[in-house]
Amino acid sequence: MKYCRFTFKGAARYGLVESSKGVERITHLLAIPPEQVGKLKSVPTEQIEPLPFLETPLLSPVQPSKIVCVGRNYRGHAAEMGNDVPKEPLLFFKPPSSLLEPGHDIRRPSISERVDHEAELGVIIAKRCHKLSPNEDVHPYILGYTAINDVSARDFQNKDGQWARAKGFDTFCPAGPLVTDEIDPWKGVSVGTRVNGQVRQQGNTRDFVFPLDALIHYISNIMTLMPGDLICTGTPEGVGPLVPGDVVEISVEGVGTLRNPVVSD
Ligand code: ZN
């Protein structure tokens, strides 16, 4: 199943996205936010007059209590930044206030000398996830997947010693355009970036340093993951700068394309 979040009759609602003959449409409203149910197939729906998905202004499909990010989870990216592959997952946060809707402007802060794109697979948590035991299956804790741009002010990341400022500006977490439970990151999902139509990043979740089950086990033994929380799983090699006037597109296979223009702050 695939769903998005959008404004319907003046209210933010979740909508089921279905394709027929290669065209995606929003065909049903979800009666309850899916993270309150924990399993997409159990969410009651209400049929509506179908809306063309690509032409409907969307909201961020996630409303997390926290955004937990993983650094250096692809060997190629660790190498291009001159870093070793970490021996255990390297975690940091982005604030929920950094979330940005599909299609809206990334506001590039003029005080930063370098702001980069980072294409990532986002994982949405289905239910409270606390201290998983080593062999516990993580699948029941995953609601679905989306595309994330972990926008990063690289100069501040290098300078500050921690990454709250570098990763935390408003608009630095574009998310969407939809959430799907129909992909399998363990088998391999392609994750990439185009800027102004030019390919900048092209990776695959098969190349994770720490697979998703290892990440969720690790995080759940540090902090309780709540329904709707978002995990950003790291970026493949090829990160590069964004300047005002650029249009950046993050593509995750099975999710689609998350497109945002870049403007100056
Ligand atoms: Zn990242």
Would you mind describing this structure in some detail?
The chain is mostly beta strands. The chain has two domains: 58 residues; 198 residues, Fumarylacetoacetase-like, C-terminal domain (Fumarylacetoacetate hydrolase, domain 2, Alpha-Beta Complex), CATH 3.90.850.10. The protein is 10% helix and 41% strand. It has four helices and 19 strands. The protein is globular and about 50 Å long. Bound molecules: zinc ion. Zinc ion binds next to loops.
Strand percentage: 35-45%
- Overall number of strands: 19
- The helix content is 10-25%
Largest sheet: 12 strands, mixed
Task: Please identify the top-level CATH class of the largest domain.
Answer: Alpha Beta
User: Which ligands appear in the coordinates?
Assistant: zinc ion
Question: Key terms for this structure?
Answer:
globular, 4 helices, Fumarylacetoacetate hydrolase, domain 2, 41% strand, 5-stranded mixed beta sheet, 2 domains
What is this entry, summarized?
The protein has helices at residues 75-80, 154-160, 164-168, 212-220; strands at 2-8, 11-20, 23-30, 45-52, 58-59, 67-71, 90-94, 99-100, 106-108, 115-116, 119-125, 142-149, 152-153, 173-180, 190-195, 198-204, 230-232, 247-252, 256-264. With 265 residues, it is mainly beta.
